[in-house]
Hints:
The chain has twelve helices and no strands. By secondary structure, it is an all-alpha fold.
Amino acid sequence: MQASGALLFVAALVLLGRWPQLDGGVIAWGAGLAVIGAGALLFLYRGLALGPIAVVSPISAGYSAITVILVVIFLGERVSAGEALAILVTFGGIALASTDLRQVVQLRGRPLPGVPSALVAMVGFGAWGALMSAASRQHDELALILVGRAAGFLFMILLAAAMRSGIPHDRRPGTLAMVVMIGAVDTLANVLFVFGVASGEAAIVATASGMYPVVPAVLAIVFLRERLAPNQYAGVIVLVAGLVGLGLQR
């Protein structure tokens, strides 16, 4: 995914004639952000592997709250009372929409081995968002993304070598096409996020980005005819209301 995303991004920059200027600061920021992002992603996957997903998913989705808190404290972004209320409503919608409360109740009192990894992932993603906000105000956004994609790919290669992971067995054309598509979509999402936080409204952008758990849920309803828990439908409504309220503050 990292490799396909990096290659597609390089191709897009060449075709658009928008090759960014690289310097020591950009390389340092990009590499550091790549390590933080990749590390958070690994902890998320570990948390999902250990489960339960009903608990791990909403915890990791809380990263946007971490980003908002950090940018307000350390970057001095101002959030009005109305915006703060809309942000809290949106976070509540995200929490409701990203988990089935019936499963959470059933898990009460049981050991939850995936929770520590989910918490690390949440803090990692939140810190990545805040640091990217700071870096994008000092350096070219496209340069940061380019270095980050390349450094992320290198980090994964080194990690796989250290863990002595072999070449994946599943190399079917369909699987490879899916990896390329995921890399392209992930890179596009990063580009949009970085340009958003560079605008000086990272708290708003981070809040809106936290709705990503809702997208798979909606797609599952539309294309897979899946049925969500009642609280998840309510969560989608609350989340949309929060985002609408946030938009009305602008």
